[in-house]
UniProtKB/TrEMBL annotation:
Taxonomic source organism: Neobacillus massiliamazoniensis
Keyword Transcription regulation annotated: yes
Record domain Cyclic nucleotide-binding: where: 20-123
Gene Ontology cellular component list: cytosol
Residue spans crossing the bilayer: none
Identification of the protein by name: CRP/FNR family transcriptional regulator
Sorted UniProt keywords: Activator, DNA-binding, Transcription, Transcription regulation
Domain of life assignment: Bacteria
Pfam families on file: cNMP_binding, HTH_Crp_2
Length: 233
């Protein structure tokens, strides 16, 4: 695992890939570079756990991260996937002392992290960056409300279809007229996101593959007919 203070020029370029950090003037961001650290996590390593002190803010440079949240009884309540060039742990800025969920590397990942109090100081002195955080939180809340509504749909197969659409829209990379999700996804992962069983997910996906709507190679889903999912709303 690599953990080192960042080299000035490389980090400034890397950090400016993130929307929120582009809101901060380069001269100001450069002043805070000594507080940023780089780290590599291997697949399935935990970045932080639910209940840990919320002392770091992470910036996902490469790879995919899975958020998990469970009940006290150990049952899964929530699961989400974060793609590259996203900040981890938007929720709780200025207010929460502990992480509300667990973050696990879904693939090998590269991140930068900065102490939470340093990042919050940066926001306090930059209204544009603070406004970006507020806007991002509103978007995340809206998306999560939509997901909750879809999970409450009684028909389990419809929930799987809505989940596939959500994953395509959120994680899909356009290739010609098709979309592919670079992050490997198992039927178990999709079942957790959709609130269904693994058997239901397999049933739906096998039918979609038979109709050549999707294909799966090395757990990566390719959407041959993206409009099919738009029509199920």
């Amino acid at each position: 695992m690599l953990n080192s203070t960042a080299i000035k020029m490389d980090v400034l370029s890397d950090l400016q890939q993130f929307d929120i950090l582009r809101c901060i003037p380069a001269k100001t961001l450069q002043k805070y570079l000594p507080f940023f650290y780089f780290r590599i996590y291997k697949k399935n390593q935990r970045i932080f756990m639910e209940g840990d002190p919320r002392d770091k803010i992470f910036f996902l440079l490469d790879g995919y991260v899975m958020y998990e949240s469970g009940s006290e009884e150990g049952s899964m309540l929530y699961l989400d996937i974060v793609k590259p060039n996203q900040m981890l742990a938007y929720g709780g800025i200025f207010t929460e002392r502990y992480y509300k969920n667990t973050a696990i590397a879904a693939t090998d990942i590269m991140v930068y992290f900065v102490p939470s109090h340093v990042f919050e100081e940066m926001l306090n002195i930059n209204a544009k960056a603070l406004k970006h955080v507020i806007s991002k939180l509103s978007i995340i809340l809206s998306l999560h409300q939509k997901r909750v509504q879809q999970i409450l749909i009684p028909n389990a197969q419809e929930r799987v279809l809505h989940t596939l659409q959500y994953l395509m829209d959120d994680l899909g990379v356009k290739e010609g007229k098709e979309f592919v999700i670079p992050c490997p996804l198992t039927a178990l992962t999709i079942s957790k996101i959709s609130g269904t069983t693994r058997e239901t997910v397999s049933l739906v996906m096998n039918q979609l593959k038979k109709e050549e709507i999707i294909s799966v190679n090395a757990k990566r889903i390719r959407f041959h007919k993206p409009n099919y999912f738009k029509e199920i709303n």
